[in-house]
TrEMBL record:
The keyword Protease applies. NCBIfam families: PRK00033.1-2 (NF000669), PRK00033.1-5 (NF000672). Residues 1-15 are annotated as: Disordered. The keyword Hydrolase applies. Involved in the modulation of the specificity of the ClpAP-mediated ATP-dependent protein degradation. The lineage of its organism: Bacteria, Pseudomonadati, Pseudomonadota, Alphaproteobacteria, Rhodobacterales. InterPro entries: ClpS, ClpS_core, Ribosomal_bL12_C/ClpS-like. This is ATP-dependent Clp protease adapter protein ClpS. One of its GO terms (biological process) is proteolysis. One of its GO terms (molecular function) is peptidase activity. Residues 19-97 form the Adaptor protein ClpS core domain.
Length: 101
């Protein structure tokens, strides 16, 4: 009789896409690690070319820290361990940490 509106109810769902959490890997500044060593670390473990690596190293030097890459948990953890191990073996105090994005 016209008193129940028959407008279609939109029930289409938009399932939440599950993305794995990402982790920022950061390098911290210190007063002792040589600039060239940091540049080398960025080239070796983060696949940067020399000028990218130099630029990021200077950002860390001036700002105190910088994000050097964003990775899955496992990859981030490996990068941090590699940088920490490499720095320690060369007796530099360079610190590398990760943080959930
Ligand atoms: N501050 C260091 C120096 O003057 C250079 C440096 C840059 C150290 C970046 C650590 O993550 C770092 N020799």
């Amino acid at each position: 009789d016209g008193d129940s509106p028959d407008a279609a109810i939109i029930t289409k769902t938009r399932p939440k896409t599950q993305r794995p959490p990402l982790y920022k890997v950061m390098l911290l500044n210190d007063d002792y690690t040589p600039m060239e060593f940091v540049v080398h670390v960025l080239e070796r473990f983060f696949g940067m070319n020399h000028s990218q690596a130099f630029e990021i190293m200077l950002t860390v030097h001036k700002k105190g820290l910088a994000v050097v890459g964003v990775f899955s948990f496992e990859v981030a953890e490996t990068k941090v361990a590699q940088v920490m191990d490499f720095s320690r073996r060369h007796q530099h105090p360079l610190q590398c940490t990760m943080e959930k994005e």
